[in-house]
Amino acid sequence: MTERVPDQRCRDSHAIEHDAERGPSQNDIENGGGEGNISDEYSKPGSTRRRSLKKIYLQCRLPIHFLVWAVWTAWWVFGLVHYRNSNDLGWLKPTLVYICITLRILTLWMPARVFFRPIELVWHHTALRVYTVVPPRLHQPCAALASVAIVLTAVLAPPDNTSSSSSGGNENTRANRAISLFGLAVMVALLTATSRDWRRIPWHTVIGGMLGQFLVALFVLRTHVGYEVFSFISSLARTLLGFAEDGVAFLTTNEVASLSWFLVGVVPPIVFFVSLVQMLFYLGLLQWFIRYFSVIFFWSLRVSGAEAVVAAATPFIGQGESAMLIRPLVSRLTLAELHQVMVCGFATISGSVLVAYVGLGLDAQALVSSCVMSIPASLAVSKMRFPETDETLTGDRAVDPLAAASGDGTGEDDEQDGETKATNALHAFAKGAWLGIRIAGMVVSTLLCIIALVSLCNGVLTWWGKYWGLGLGLGLGSADGGRSGASPPLTLELILGYLLYPVAWLLGVPGPDVFRVAQLVGIKIVENEYVAFNALTTQEVYANMGARSKLIATYACCGFGNFGSLGTQIGVLTQLAPRRAGDVSRVALSALFSGVLATLTSASVAGMLYNGS
């Protein structure tokens, strides 16, 4: 396949964004066309009033939008004045909200190329000039050398942080950061060696994805602004958790709502978040974010339009559900694209469980940043493990998630699924509540069965191990080499701790905590990430781990890469494309392996950049 010139791809994505973002004309809207602002429900009997309200809105939407923007502008200006002398960047949060609202209102009236044009001009007069001067055969080597130089400088330049006031103590040394860097190199080498066709690996995507992952971590872990931005996002997750607690308190009591039970602290936030996502999806706000994120991935990493949409949507709506945004395209995806769709789901977690995990007391900034970091990493890892060898349907164009999710617009897909489209935002919220109950029920039942199965395996292994002297105080198999005179019983966690010991060491975990972090990673793969996170926050054996070890463990477990999710993704994709069931099963195990490695690369990068400050 020939290499696409960056400025040509930029023009392609801008043209597509213009088509997707152009506002519907008056005739389009009145005839039921446009971007789905008026659906077929308005042509049904009894919809005259709604149609009249819609016409009034269309005639007055300019002053309405201006009034909304003016109110938010006044709010933003007041925030700037109020926090002008603040030392904790208090002005940053309202500024971020104001920018998002302003961009959303402007894109209702202007094509996207108006905003991308300045970026394109800067690109043409800076990076593209350097790009054209360098001979084509040296493009990738030069990009690789520049990326390596950036990484080495950021990892090895800072001095050791061994002060007593540091939260990491003497763990945050150049040696430990260098081990994390070495671990990342080992994972890249492993993926290249086990690649389906290493000669076809798109190194532009790999370098861009890994560099994007590194820059996000650098922004979060080494800059005050980055820390505050992700702290603001994580505070929103905590706020959502509090709203769900209010609902539980109404149904029960305040005492019950404050309990740290799974059914009380985790299930209600999942139901509420799914409901909220469905309402935002109906209003078109979620598609707007996904659309622009997908264009960034499409243009910068040179992936197909379908892959870009799934990658952008996965942190918001999770594995399986993100594939629904490209539902009409699933049956026509190549094997590499199917692999990529599954890897994105395994590499990160969704917002619905993120708010629940924040309630466990985990580092919220680490969870949020890991979700973002693992997306470009999943694109890079998947392309190393399973590079594209076929012609893709959306290789040269971005995909509008709103149009793709709606299929051909006939509604036949919804009728076949036995579901009806939401008629308004409240209906969408109610449908989301029911969907949230189903998802939460699946999570609860899966946890119950997996934990019970692991307990069964542990019971059998413990019984079998007693005849070898394990668990009888003979010192065999103990994590301290038998110095304590006692040995733990033979369990699945013990076996995984030894099997994954090299992996935990390569992540840069300090020596005393390597075995425990290896056990957590093993629990996450065999059971799921919630069991691992719950063990990290509640079990005494992990309570005295260092700050560096806990941070790396949080990043390493922040993904859906486990055997239970393997069945979930196979089931969803085979429902969307029954004829591709064999292909989905064919790439599933490779996708799980790649998704787990993508999550581990985020942990490795976090270990490279964390210095305890």
From TrEMBL:
Localization annotation: Cell membrane
Domain Concentrative nucleoside transporter C-terminal: start-end pairs: 367-607
InterPro entries: C_nuclsd_transpt, CNT_C_dom, CNT_N_dom, Gate_dom
Residue ranges of the region described as Disordered: 1-47, 401-420
Gene Ontology cellular component annotations, sorted alphabetically: plasma membrane
Keywords of the record: Cell membrane, Membrane, Transmembrane, Transmembrane helix
Biased composition (Basic and acidic residues): 1-22
Annotated ranges, domain Concentrative nucleoside transporter N-terminal: 182-253
Gene Ontology molecular function: nucleoside transmembrane transporter activity; symporter activity
TM segment ranges: 62-83, 95-116, 177-194, 201-221, 259-283, 295-318, 338-360, 439-464, 490-509, 587-610
UniProt domain Nucleoside transporter/FeoB GTPase Gate: residue ranges: 264-360
Membrane topology: Multi-pass membrane protein
The UniProt record lists the keyword DNA-binding: no
Family membership: Belongs to the concentrative nucleoside transporter (CNT) (TC 2.A.41) family.
Protein name: Na+ dependent nucleoside transporter C-terminus-domain-containing protein
Origin species: Coniella lustricola
